[in-house]
User: Fold this.
Amino acid sequence: MDKNARVIAGMPLALDADTVLRHIGNTGGPAGPELRANVEQLRRQAQEMLTPRAVLQLVAVEGVANGTVNLAGGHSFHSKKLSGLLAGAETLAVMVGTVGEKLEEEVSRLFAVGEYVEALALDAIGSVAVEEVCQHVRSLVCREYADAVGLRVGPSLSPGYQYWDIREQAVLFSLLPAAEIGVTLTESSLMLPRKSESAIVPLGRDLKVTAGEDEPPCRFCDRQDCPARLR
Amino acid sequence: MADLKAIYDAVIVGDAPKVKGLVQESVDAGVDPKAVLQKALIPAMAEVGRRMKAQEFYVPEVLIAARAMQWGLNILKPLLAGTGLEPAGRVAIGTVKSDLHDIGKNLVGMMLEGAGFEIIDLGTDVTPEKFVAAVKDKRANVIGMSALLTTTMPNMKKTIDALKEAGVREQVKVLVGGAPVTQRYADEIGADGYAPDASSAVDIAKSQLGI
Assistant:
C-alpha cells in the first residue's frame, strides 16, 4: 500500500499574521493592537518550535455512487455529500501533515503560567502552520501530478467536517503510513500531535467539482459560524 | 475606596502590572484582602463578562483582563487562606475522556475563577471516575465538562451515569460545553446546564447554585 508514499519535510511557513488573527475570531476590540503585536512577535519565535512534515499517498478510486466511495485495496468512505464532491474522481491524493508537539507544549506552559493571550495567539499560529503544511502538499499535487497529466483538481476535504463523519479518519489513516511523520490516531479519531491535519484531494479528467490550487475549502463546508471561515 | 476603584479599572483594561502594584499597595495600607477581592477584582471581571455579552469585548480582551486579575489574586491568595472565606462554588472542570482539547476548558475556568469560584482543574482526558473523585474528595459542587469531538461527547453521559452510580449526582450541578455540544444534547443526557461560551458559563453556574 505504502510503496509510493512520499514524505515531505521542512517546507517554509509564512505564518501570516492576518490569517492567524482571523483564526482567533473577532479582534476588533480594545485589545486588538496588543494581540497583533503578540502575534507578530510570536510568529518569529514559533518557527523554532515547528517541525513541518507531511506524508502523501495517491490512491486509485474504483467507484463513486450512492454515498459510497470505493478505493483500491478494498477501502471505502461513506458520506452522501462527500460522494457528490468526488463525482468523476479517478485518484485521491491522501495526505496527513503536522508541525509536531513542541508548539502545543509551549501553549500549555503559557496557559499554566497565566499568559493567556500569548497562549491563544501561539495556538492559532500552530493551526495556521499546519494548514500551510497541507496547502504546500496540495500545491505540490497540483503541479507535479495533476497538471503534468491534465487532471482536474477538486477541493481539499477532511473527516470531521459537517460533510464527513470524523470516525472515517481511521479509513484515511489506513491508506498511508502516517506514523512515518510521527502522527497517530486515537480511538476517538483524534490526531496526535494535535496540530496535525488530514485531507484528501480528488483528481480526475472528468471531475465534476473543482477548486483552485490556493482555494480554501470553506465554500464546501456548511459551518457558517467558523471563525476561520473566508467569506 | 479610591484604590479599589483604580484596581477595578485596571483589571478591565487588562493592565496586569498596575493591578499587581495597586493590590500590593492596598494590602500594605491595611485594606482587607476580602474587600479587594469582592469589591474590586470580582466586580471588574463581572463587568468584563457584561461587555463580552454586549459585544464590546471579545476573547482577547477577556484574556487580558483575566491575566490582570490573576496577578492581583496571586497577592491575595496567601492572605485569604485561613480567613474562612468560602468560594462562590467549587468547580471541577475537565475535558472528557479520550479528548485532549483544552483551550475552551481553560477559558471557562479562568472566567469562573474571575467570578469567585474555586477551580479544580482536572485537565484533559478525564475519566468519569476522576470527576466522581473530585466530588467525593475535593467537595466540588459543580462539574464542568468539555468535549470537542462527536466521538468523545458520549463520555459526558458516561460521567453523569458514574455520578449517579456513586450516589453523588444530587450533590453537584453538571454543566457541559464544547463545539459539538448543544442545549438539546445537554437535556438528553441529563446535564443541568449548557454553556455556549465562557461568559455564559459563569451565569449558568451562578443560577444553578442560586447565587
In short: The radius of gyration of chain A is 18 Å. Chain A is about 35% helix and 20% strand.
